[in-house]
Amino acid sequence: MALVRALETLEEMRQKVPIHGNPAFAPLFIVNPLSKVGLMTLFMTHPSTEDRIQRLKAIAEQAEAKATSTSSQVFSPST
Fold this sequence. Notes:
Largest sheet: none
Structural class: mainly alpha
Distance between the termini: 38 Å
Order of helices and strands: HH
Number of strands: 0
Oligomer: single chain
Radius of gyration: 19 Å
Helix content: 40-55%
């Protein structure tokens, strides 16, 4: 979950210190500095930070569920 916290921190910093620059350089940033509305969404090369965080949390939940089911199968008595 360290990766999730890192993305959340980057997003918080992006909101506190907006970057106004050339849109051609947007793909070089980890967190997109461009507006996420209107025509600027056409030039987004990556999903939004919020989408990435949601996807990482879902992957972590799936991995945890799989690990839990695997460990319960290993330790359950045989019939």
